[in-house]
Each structure stands twice: as C-alpha cells, then as structure tokens.
Amino acid sequence: MTKQRYDEVRGYRAKLFFLEPARVEWVQFSLEDRHRVGIMLHPMAVPPKHEVDNHNYEYTPVPLEPLPPIPNNVFMHHLIDPGPHRRPVWLHRLPKKLNHSLLNSSDELVIGWGLHIIEGPNWVAICAAGFCITFLSGAFSTLWSILRSDVSGGFGIGSWLVSALTLAMMACFSKWSQE
Q1: Could you please report the per-residue DSSP string of 22-64?
Q2: What is the pTM of this model?
Q3: CA distance 149 to 151
Q4: First and final CA of the chain: distance in angstroms?
Q5: What's the mean pLDDT in 69-80?
C-alpha cells in the first residue's frame, strides 16, 4: 500500500526512472492548502506520547524506543519489494494517523508526523540512458558517413548529439531532483 501511494504521489516522474527512493526520514510537518508540506523537524521526529494518549496516532511501544521505528534499509526493502514479509513487528512500530485526516483540520497550523522519502539518482537508469544515447549517435554517425561519404561530418553530428542529449538529460534530472 505504501509503494502504491508513493507511485501515485510521484506522478509522471515515476515513469522516467531517473530518480529512485534512496532513504527515509521520520518528520514532523505542517500542511498548508491541502498540498504544500513544510518539514518542521527531521530526521527522527515521531508523534509524542500525548498524541498516542489522545488517540490521534498509534504505535507500540510507547514511548517508541529504540528509534527509528524501522531501520532505513528494512523500510526500503519493504517499499521496493512489497508483499508478505515474515517480520510483522515493524508494522506495529510504524506511527499511524487515526480518526480524522489532517486535510479536514480546522487548525490554523496543521501539524502531523510521517515519512519523508528522499529520492536520489538511479545510476543504473542514468548509465543505461547514456549508453543508449552513445549507441544511437554512433549508429546515426555511421549511417551518415556511409550514405554521405563524409566520415568527419557524420561523427561531428554524432558528437554534437551526444553532448546535447546528455545535457538535456542532466537538466531534466537536475530539475526533477529539486521537486
């Protein structure tokens, strides 16, 4: 369920494969206008005991010790490989919001706790795209050289294609990593 929701939130970027989940932080956040989130505390913020006592959040044990609720590598494994796992102990330790959604809060400052999934470069996808760009420009350069009998012109165009497409890919990656 977490993986499905993560993919929904990512939207079009999920289909591009240049970014992937790298790590998680447990954060306290503010919610503004139903879509803008501000990180207040990180990397190890979990709902305090009074939030559990007031039945706003649920986790066991209370207080939650040791922190984090679930080790980063274990969470990443569950996110990337969803399905039945043998250790349900982590499920009980994950803080869960109860009852009312934060989206329906009338508070002036809406505060919640949750996971912030930090994305990083998917180096396998980036390298694969680089190899594809290089291969396609090489094929284009060879074809140009054969059909036009112009080796230097063909490989000049191929060199320009490699640099232009690599710069375009890096510009897109840079933009996506800032979102």
Answers
A1: EEEEEEEEEEETTTEEEEEE-SB----HHHHHTTSEE-SSSS-
A2: 0.73
A3: 6
A4: 23
A5: 86
